[in-house]
Amino acid sequence: MNVESPTQIEPARIDAPAGDLPDLVAEIAAKAEGLGRALHPQTALHLASLVRLMNTYYSNLIEGHRTRPRDIERALAGERDDDQRDLMAEAAAHYRVQEAIDRAAVDGELPDPADPNFILRLHRDFYADASIDMLTGRGGERSFVMTPGEWRSRAEHDVQIGRHIPPSSARVADFMSYFFSRFAFEPKDGMRMTAVGAGKAKRILALATAHHRFNWIHPFPDGNGRVSRLMSHAMALKAGIGAHGLWSVSRGLARGLGPGDAGRTEYRKYMAAADAPRQGDRDGRGNLSEAHLVGFAEWFLKVCLDQISYMSSLFELDTLSKRIERHVLITDGLSPESNWLLQEALIRGEFERGAAPRLTGLPERSARRVLKELTDAGLLASDTPKGPVSLRFPSDTQDTLFPKLFA
Ligand SMILES: Nc1ncnc2c1ncn2[C@@H]1O[C@H](COP(=O)(O)OP(=O)(O)O)[C@@H](O)[C@H]1O
Ligand SMILES: [Mg+2]
């Protein structure tokens, strides 16, 4: 075989899932269906913003870039600290790219996540605000400035990840066309026989293997990990397991399944294992190991299921309601009556400001003061100054409302 043939990514998919895989796929589909279903759509919408913040935090953390949730919020508000300008710009960009994906999904306009044009745009948008310093590759002797939204194409872009040497830069465009032909969810003419197509179970399985094969090709000089996690997020939405943005892959990939440090090394370990060439006659018929691809897919889908389960427990109406009550109790500056306003927003999604006296049982002026405490704390907000208020989840509520969400 030509060493630089795109078919080198075979086996790209798992055609006959066995072992744990069929159950995992079914459980993911069922659990994702239930995630957030009891929540009011308004509440779910604002929780999805928090999840986006969390995904941004963990995806950049995997790359070794640590930006505190509070600083991501500040970055989104346009602030930049001198000593972490690049990190803040990167976090804001990651958040915005994911937001655009989530919005497109809601509007039914999310493109095929495996489409090279979509992937190139993710990369371009992610790096749109990047400094020259962030775009400068320092691999070998020569340094170069990466162009956002372009594949690796010249020899100086060649990369190595650990022991894995991805295809040479000149071949990346062809590899990514082939990638599309194998991972299209909405195949174009001529791809129907080879692509994933519409089946939900097929899409869930492909979500896992596409993540590895994308990174195996490593189509960009830098940013492959972040772009691949955004692509996987988009695939999850398109596969119908995105739960309107109430979970995302990065937290699980960063933390793994095992405890502490052991868990944190799993992602790299399973990715590296799946780089292996075919291990003898009984390891499929492709260039790469089928057994290790299956191992990776099992791990990846267990991680997804673990995250969906965890977010389900966190976003359970009862749990949220109790934690909100506790948050009011332990937070200075919040009157006990504010709990009633927060509970109303949780259950009904939003309420008119004029309803505060009725909801708190307080006279007009006191009720307005309680409402102001909540808007000052950022727990309630509205799109227009006088409009109805709904729940928000600013980062200083995270310790009480969503323990362990962040590392
Ligand atoms: N052995 C491996 N084989 C394939 N991909 C890998 C391997 N190890 C790590 N990766 C992927 O490569 C990414 C790092 O590549 P890089 O281009 O620096 O992306 P980013 O800058 O977004 O972190 C990791 O986040 C991971 O997704
Ligand atoms: Mg990198």
From TrEMBL:
Coiled coil: none annotated. Transmembrane segments: none annotated. Residues 114-302 form the Fido domain. PROSITE patterns: FIDO. It holds the Pfam family Fic. It comes from the Bacteria. Signal peptide: none annotated. InterPro entries: Fido, Fido-like_dom_sf, Fido_containing. This is Fic family protein. It comes from Novosphingobium clariflavum.
